[in-house]
């Protein structure tokens, strides 16, 4: 169960002056400012085209598919990715944490599908704890997207970071709470996983 502090940490940072607007359908967005040619091209690049089916509205707006740790130091053929929908694998990381090499540059990559509607101001928030104490917080903007015309997934690479190093950093495991949420506070995904730092991948 998340503590009250966790819930506050997992809320997106407020954007000054941002006020949520009324929710519109993809068709309504497609018809807005239809005479603006450059805006129409931009909307088409997001899959917002008049008369195109917006997708299955029984699904959530966003389905988060995978979380991956990418590093140029990973051995050839090694991939650190897991399926967010595979709850058994996520739960297994508590007993068998993912191994991350100490002192290397890496970045987080997330893949997701937009099922219908337009999403905006979507962020990935990650709280890292060790022995119950918060040691790091990452908040990265995914951006704004419409349903992909071919139903394909989007991938977002976040800014590179460096993993901690040293004997103290390598002792014990780290517990992570990840969330994908928008500026309006709508949560699209919320999961937990664990990792350990080691001298090698």
Automatic annotation (TrEMBL):
InterPro entries: Ig_E-set (IPR014756), Rho_GDI (IPR000406), RhoGDI_dom_sf (IPR024792). Gene3D superfamilies: Coagulation Factor XIII, subunit A, domain 1 (2.70.50.30). SUPFAM superfamilies: E set domains. One of its GO terms (cellular component) is cytosol. GO terms for biological process: Rho protein signal transduction. The keyword Cytoplasm applies. It comes from the Eukaryota. Residues 1-22 are annotated as: Disordered. It is found in: Cytoplasm. One of its GO terms (molecular function) is Rho GDP-dissociation inhibitor activity. Keywords: Cytoplasm, GTPase activation. Belongs to the Rho GDI family. This is Immunoglobulin E-set. It comes from Boletus reticuloceps.
């Amino acid at each position: 169960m998340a503590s009250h502090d966790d819930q506050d940490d997992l809320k997106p940072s407020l954007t000054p002056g941002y006020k949520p607007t009324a929710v519109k359908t993809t068709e309504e967005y497609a018809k807005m400012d239809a005479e603006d040619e450059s805006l129409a091209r931009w909307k088409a690049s997001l899959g917002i085209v008049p008369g195109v089916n917006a997708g299955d509205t029984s699904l959530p707006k966003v389905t988060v598919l995978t979380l991956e740790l990418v590093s140029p130091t990973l051995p050839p053929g090694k991939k650190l990715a897991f399926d967010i929908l595979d709850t058994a694998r996520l739960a297994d990381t508590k007993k068998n944490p993912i191994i991350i090499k100490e002192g290397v540059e890496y970045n987080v990559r997330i893949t997701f599908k937009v099922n219908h509607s337009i999403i905006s101001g979507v962020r990935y928030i990650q709280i890292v704890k060790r022995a119950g104490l918060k040691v790091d917080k990452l908040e990265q903007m995914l951006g704004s997207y419409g349903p992909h015309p071919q139903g394909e997934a989007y991938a977002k690479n976040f800014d590179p970071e460096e993993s901690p190093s040293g004997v103290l950093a390598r002792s014990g495991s780290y517990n992570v709470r990840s969330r994908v949420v928008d500026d309006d506070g709508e949560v699209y995904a919320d999961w937990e996983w664990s990792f350990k730092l080691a001298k090698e991948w």
